[in-house]
Amino acid sequence: MQPLFRALTAALAVGLLATGVLAGGTSASGEETQGASTPVVGAMTHGRAPASSDAIDWKPCAQDAKAECGTLRLPVDWARPGGETFDLAVARRAAADPDRRVGVLLVNPGGPGDSGVDFAVRRAPSHFSADTLSRFDIVGFDPRGVGGSRPVMCSSKLLAERPSSYPRNQAEFDQLARYNRTLREDCRRHTGPVFDHADTLSVVRDMDALRRALGERKINYFGHSYGTLIGQQYAEEYGDRIRAMALTANVDHSLGTLQFITSSAAAAEDSFQQFVKWCESTSSCALYGRDVTAVWDAVLARADRGEIRDPEHPDQPLTAHDITLSAFKAFYGPDRDELAALIAQLDSQKPGEEQKKPGEEQKKPRQQTDQVPPQQTQAAPFHAVFCQDWSMRPKNYREYAALTQAELQAAPHMRGTPRVHEGVAGCIGWPSRVNNPEHRLRITEAPKILLLHSRHDPANHFSWAANVHRQTRETTVLLPYEGAGHSVYGRNDCTRDAVDDYLAELILPAPGSHCESSA
């Protein structure tokens, strides 16, 4: 991860973009987009015969000729398989040792909105062990609405006009709802019919069509974070078509709005407390020997007063929201040294002082004429999925304010959880009907599934994995990692070997096992 000083603005832009778009669900007007009558290869309804194994026209990937890329044409609406279609972007990295090949390993890195194609082409070689790469074809796909699979596109200008996710009264709440409806229709217009069918259940059906197109009777699957929801729901729908499935940083799709928000906030607050403990016991921490919590709270209070500037862009103030979001992202690593250095630098700023980078003169803001003209539209898939998978629709300011207060109580130092808060805020004003509503997980036909989860995950509370396991105790095995961070697989030999042994040999950890922290 690049230093947070240089990455701060970019990280904030990515985080805010991820929670500032809307798409999906039934249109407010109820209109239908007329679908084409193009024949669909493999567009069969649930349980029908497999597609031809040559349905994907594989070619060397532009980014890496050692991997193959292609597309699979699928129906936008699985209830109307003869209607409008889209092309699912797919990538495959063949098993390095064909003689030891076990099968295909479908992968999804999460998001929602991350590219499975990019993961398979660029990240898989360094992510997975040599043994897993030698025994499996790594197959990634961009879920509908993402990357190369008819991405959700929205007006850049409209995205930049999003009002605050913290309305102060009913009038501001109504303004946010109106904006969300306007943006939702804008995204729908720029995206096309995939907009209305970007939910995870539709992705699950796409994944089974991909299985058929690959000519596989059963698949193996590795899903991370939001990719675990794809895996869980695939196991519900097509459990008998799974050979092995490993899910890390699990999402609990049974949670109601209050539980979802407060548990997310508690996860962020727990990661902050873990950071404080680390700083108090680690001499390399830039805040070592100080009251870390007091310094942090003071920095946020100064940001509230407009006294904190972006170290990389001294003409721009940083809000407390900006700073907590940057810290939240740092907890994913966790990148504690860099976060501590950032907090120390922000704390050292003096009110009214011009901030300069070391060895550089103060730069004047660039004029608009020096900048690249902004794009008219940009990809914005987060709410296209989120607001179709979750029926989180606060109805009025009073209800929303109560949720916000509960969130702040669960995370007083992190002030809630920035991304989840804006995720829920982005669904205000949407139609109440969702394509894939929350429910308890019901898996009846799948083999044993391996769940891994960090005890101190900053985004997905450990209770989520524990609850998923309780709902599926007969079909899942939970292996906790006792450390911090969002990713789990590559933490240490214990976590990596658990996944590798299971995928290759179907050997599962004994019930009650855990992996010690590597930090």
What do these coordinates show?
This protein is an alpha/beta fold. The protein contains 16 helices and 13 strands. The protein has helices at residues 4-18, 116-127, 130-135, 156-160, 170-191, 200-213, 226-238, 257-281, 292-304, 320-332, 336-348, 382-389, 397-410, 418-425, 462-471, 493-505, and strands at 59-60, 68-75, 85-93, 103-108, 136-141, 153-155, 219-224, 242-248, 309-310, 313-317, 377-379, 449-456, 476-484. Helix 15 (462-471) links the parallel strand 12 (449-456) and strand 13. Helix 6 packs across helix 7. It is globular and about 65 Å long.
Give a brief description.
This protein is of the alpha/beta class. The chain has helices at 4-18, 116-127, 130-135, 156-160, 170-191, 200-213, 226-238, 257-281, 292-304, 320-332, 336-348, 382-389, 397-410, 418-425, 462-471, 493-505, and strands at 59-60, 68-75, 85-93, 103-108, 136-141, 153-155, 219-224, 242-248, 309-310, 313-317, 377-379, 449-456, 476-484.
